[in-house]
Design goal:
The protein is an alpha/beta fold and 446 residues long. Helix content is 40%, strand content 14%. The longest helix has 32 residues, at 213-244. It binds nicotinamide-adenine-dinucleotide (NAD) and uridine-5'-diphosphate-glucuronic acid.
C-alpha cells in the first residue's frame, strides 16, 4: 500500500520531532500533525526560534519541511479523514485517580484519540501506537474503534518511540532500531509492510525489527526500565563510594570498559528525571502486580525507590552542611531541565531538591538556560507560597561567571555544558553529578 497522507495526533515532544523527520525524509508523503491544544499548533507554525519543543537541529528540519509536506493543523477531523496512516502520539501520564492511581498509565487521551479516529474515518486506516502504552492496549483500542464505527477496517500497529530528549533529531536520523509490532494476519502484515516502507526511506532495513504487537508494546516499557535500572545501580554505588573513599567516576569507567556491560547510562547523578522513566516503570510494576508477579513488581519498584533516595540524599547533604537548618541561607539552583539540551522540566530532580531546600528554610534562586519562567513557576506552585526568583538576567554567561549576590551555595542539578565553564571562585558548590560538596569546584565532566 502506497501511503500518501500521514496524520499524527499529538504535537508534543514526540509527535513534533518524529513527524518533522518523517516529512524531511519522505518528501512524497504529506505529514500533518494535529493537536487539541491550539496554542501548541500556533507555536509550531510560528518563528523557528520559539517552537514549543527545544531540540538541537529541530528548527533546521522544520525550516526545510514545513509548508512543503509538513503541516501543523487544528483541523483534527479533516486530517483524520484524509490520512491512510494515523499515529497516536498523545501523553500517557501516571493515573492520579481511580483504579491503579499512582501506578498505572492514564489512557484517557489515547482513548479519546481512538474515539475521534472512529468518528471521523470514512475509509480503512492503519492506526499506530506511538505513545508508550501498557502491553495489550491495542486490544482496547481495537474495541473502541470497532464500537464507534461501521464498515471500516482498522489495522493497529505498535511503533514505540525510543528517542531521548536533547538528542531527538540525531536519534531519529540514526535510530538503533525501529520497532514495529503487528498482527500476524494477512492484513496485519500488509500494514506492517506499509510502515516499514516509510522508515526504509532512511533507516537501513536490518535496523527495522518487526514483532507481534504485544512484544513491541512490552519492549518499550522494558527498554526504559533497563536504562533506568542502570542509573539506579550506579547511583546506589555512589553512596557506597562516599563511605569508602572509592571514586564513582573511576568506578563507572572501570565497570563500563567491560564490553559485556558497556559505558552508557552509568553516570551517577542527582537521580533520573523526565516524563517517562518513572511513569513507565510504575506502569510496569502495576502490570506485574496485575498478573500476580509480586516479586517481579518489587524488583522494578526498587529502581524508583533508589532514585527517590538519591534525590533526597543530595538535598539532605546540603542541609546537613549548614547544620540542619537553612533559615536565612540563599541557595542558587543551577539547572531546572531534567537533563541538558532540553526545555523540558517534567519530573526534573531539581523540582524535588528545590522543594526540600525550601522547606528547610532556604531562599531559592533558580537559573536554567532553556526552561521558561512560566514552566518553573508551574512546577513549584503546589508547594511554594511566594514565587522564587529566577535568574535569566543575572547569569553573566559571557563572562563565564555566575552573578548571584550573597549566595551561600550553588547546587548544580542539570549538566548544562555552560556550567562546566563557569568560574565559581571560592563559592560552595554542590555538584549533583558526583554528589560531592566542594569548596573549589572541579568542573563537571572531569
Ligand atoms: P506531550 O505532552 O509533549 O505531547 C502530547 C500532546 O498530545 C499534547 O500537545 C496534547 O495537547 C496532545 N493531546 C492529548 N490528547 C489529545 C487528543 N485527544 N487529541 C489531540 N491532541 C491531544 O507528550 P510527549 O512527551 O510527546 O509524549 C507522548 C507519548 O510518547 C507518551 O506516551 C510518552 O511516554 C511517549 N514518549 C515520550 C518521549 C519523550 O522523550 N518525551 C520519548 C519516547 C516516548
Ligand atoms: C529516555 C530514554 O533514553 C529514551 O530511549 C526513551 O525514548 C525516552 O526516555 C522515553 O521513553 O521518554 P529521556 O528521558 O528523554 O529518554 O532522556 P535520557 O537521556 O534517558 O535521560 C533520562 C534521565 O536519566 C535524565 O534525568 C538524565 O540526566 C538521567 N541520566 C541519564 C543519568 O542520571 N545518568 C546517565 O548515565 C544517563
Amino acid at each position: 500500500m502506497q501511503i500518501k497522507n500521514i496524520c499524527c495526533i499529538g504535537a508534543g515532544y514526540v509527535g513534533g520531532p518524529t513527524m518533522a523527520v518523517i516529512a524531511l525524509k519522505c518528501p512524497h508523503i504529506n505529514v500533518t500533525v494535529v493537536d487539541a491544544n491550539p496554542e501548541r499548533i500556533k507555536a509550531w507554525n510560528g518563528p523557528l526560534n520559539a517552537l514549543p519543543v527545544y531540540e538541537p537541529g529541530l528548527a533546521e528540519v522544520v525550516k526545510e519541511a514545513r509548508g512543503r509536506n509538513l503541516f501543523f493543523s487544528e483541523d483534527i477531523s479533516g486530517n483524520i479523514e484524509r490520512a491512510e496512516m494515523i499515529f497516536m502520539a498523545v501523553n500517557t501520564p501516571t493515573k492520579t485517580e481511580g483504579e491503579g492511581a499512582g501506578m498505572a498509565a492514564d489512557l484517557r487521551y489515547v482513548e479519546a484519540c481512538a474515539k475521534d479516529i472512529a468518528k471521523y474515518s470514512k475509509s480503512d486506516k492503519i492506526v499506530i501506537e506511538k505513545s508508550t502504552l501498557p502491553v495489550r492496549t491495542a486490544e482496547k483500542i481495537k474495541e473502541i474503534l470497532e464500537e464507534n464505527s461501521t464498515n471500516i477496517h482498522f489495522e493497529i500497529l505498535s511503533n514505540p518511540e525510543f528517542l531521548a530528549e536533547g538528542t531527538a533529531i540525531q536519534d531519529l536520523f540514526k535510530s538503533d532500531r525501529v520497532l514495529i509490532g503487528g498482527d500476524e494476519t494477512e492484513s496485519g502484515q500488509k500494514a506492517v509492510q506499509a510502515l516499514v516502507d516509510v522508515y526504509a526511506n532512511w533507516i537501513p532495513e536490518e535496523k527495522i525489527l518487526t514483532t507481534n504487537v504485544w512484544s513491541s508494546e512490552l519492549a518499550k516499557l522494558a527498554s526504559n526500565a533497563m536504562l533506568a535500572q542502570r542509573i539506579s545501580s550506579i547511583n546506589s554505588l555512589s553512596a557506597l563510594c562516599e563511605k569508602t573513599g572509592a571514586n564513582i567516576d573511576e568506578l563507572s569507567k572501570a565497570i563500563g570498559m567491560d564490553h559485556r556491560i558497556g559505558p552508557y547510562f552509568l553516570k551517577a547523578s542527582v537521580g533520573f528525571g523526565g516524563s517517562c522513566f518513572q511513569k513507565d516503570i510504575l506502569n510496569l510494576v502495576y502490570l506485574c502486580k496485575y498478573y500476580g508477579l509480586d516479586e517481579v513488581a518489587e524488583y522494578w519498584h526498587q529502581v524508583i525507590k533508589i532514585n527517590d533516595y538519591q534525590k533526597d540524599r543530595f538535598a539532605q547533604k546540603i542541609i546537613d552542611h549548614f547544620g540542619g537548618d537553612l533559615t536565612g541561607k540563599r541557595i542558587a539552583i543551577l539547572g531546572w531541565a531534567f537533563k541538558a539540551n532540553t526545555n523540558d522540566s517534567r519530573e526534573s530532580a531539581a523540582i524535588y531538591v528545590a522543594e526540600k531546600l525550601h522547606k528547610a528554610g532556604a531562599t531559592i534562586e533558580i537559573y536554567d538556560p532553556m526552561v521558561s519562567e512560566d514552566s518553573i513557576y508551574s512546577d513549584v506552585r503546589f508547594y511554594w507560597k511566594e514565587i522564587p526568583k529566577t535568574h535569566k538576567d543575572r547569569f553573566d554567561v559571557l563572562k563565564g561567571s555566575p552573578n548571584f549576590n550573597n549566595v551561600d551555595a550553588f547546587a548544580i542539578v542539570t549538566e548544562w555544558e555552560a556550567f562546566k565553564h563557569f568560574d565559581f571562585k571560592k563559592s560552595m558548590v554542590f555538584d549533583g553529578r558526583n554528589i560531592l560538596e566542594k569548596k573549589e569546584v572541579t568542573h563537571l565532566g572531569k
